[in-house]
Amino acid sequence: MRTILAAVDQSHHAHDVMSRAAELAVLLRNDLVVLSVVSSDPMKQFNIVEEQNRLASFHRELIFKHFPDNSLAVEPHGGNGGVYRYGTAGVRVQSRIISGNVVDKICECAEEVNADIVIVGSRGLGNIGSLVLGSVSERVVHKCPRSVLVVKGGLESPDWQGLSTGQKSGASRV
Ligand SMILES: Nc1ncnc2c1ncn2[C@@H]1O[C@H](COP(=O)(O)OP(=O)(O)OP(=O)(O)O)[C@@H](O)[C@H]1O
Ligand SMILES: [Mg+2]
Question: Atom 19 (ligand 1): residue with closest C-alpha?
Answer without folding.
Answer: 134
